[in-house]
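Tokens for LysR family transcriptional regulator. Go.
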Amino acid sequence: MDLVDGMRVFVASVETGSFSGAATRLGISPKLASKYMAELEAQLGAQLLHRTTRRLGLTVAGEQLMAQVPDWLDQLDEMQNSLREERRGLSGTIRVSAAVTYGEMFLAPLLRRFREPHPDLTIDLRLSDRFVDLAGEGIDVAIRIGRLDDSALMARKLGQIRLMLVASPGYLARAGRLETLDDLTRHACLRDTNMRGDGAWPLYQGNQLTRVPVSGRFLANSARVARDLAIEGEGIALCPDYVVQVSIERGDLEHVLPQVCGPQLDIHAVHLPQRRMARRTRALMDFLVGNLARSPTAEKPVPD
């Protein structure tokens, strides 16, 4: 019997409560699991388990071993996976969560670039504008924009975005150009309901923050929809820079009141606290830090 196999049987037996449960988990027969356990105890010279007709129990020696062996096996598996991945590239699955518009326009192309040299790697991208439960939904990395509310998560800052006032040239010609923030109150404003708050737009002129109450007949929980409505001449939108940059360059939108901007929002990659992170997840985090260290508008989002 290999010592590692014996340790795996021991841990699986304790966690499942029986040799049959350990056998099912490890893909061996219950008879072989029982045999490995007996050989491990003989090799260590100590009884590790109390065997009863209903359930296995730990001896004092078993408790001491169980306190150390699971971490040791995890480290061994991580080392073996790392050696394999260095030869073959990254493998396995990374589950990534992000907001819908940011994920579609900006993150998905980056993830494609990250996965390209690793044919055995699977990316499971889950887009939602709600804050997902990382533990409950099995998420490895979540990309979050704005204030971080969950202090129990580990976070790495990736960059920043800023919000910009935009409108189409046709709308401005029809409704009039803006000279001051006060002019916003007489314009149709396209509100993204994903923005937190009471409906007023927080806008900065220099270091001065003003909350401007706005109104309009279109509300949507999508910055992309707000941008598209602005292009169609329905009003003024307050959108993230990565959503509107290409449209401004094309001339479909104009930057309204360029001396004014919305708040700058931090972009973070967050994950659950853990002793060891899978190598593929660490590699993705490093890739994102390297590619998003600047404002997202430094790299153009995918045109659509």
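Confidence is low (pLDDT under 50) at residues 295-299.
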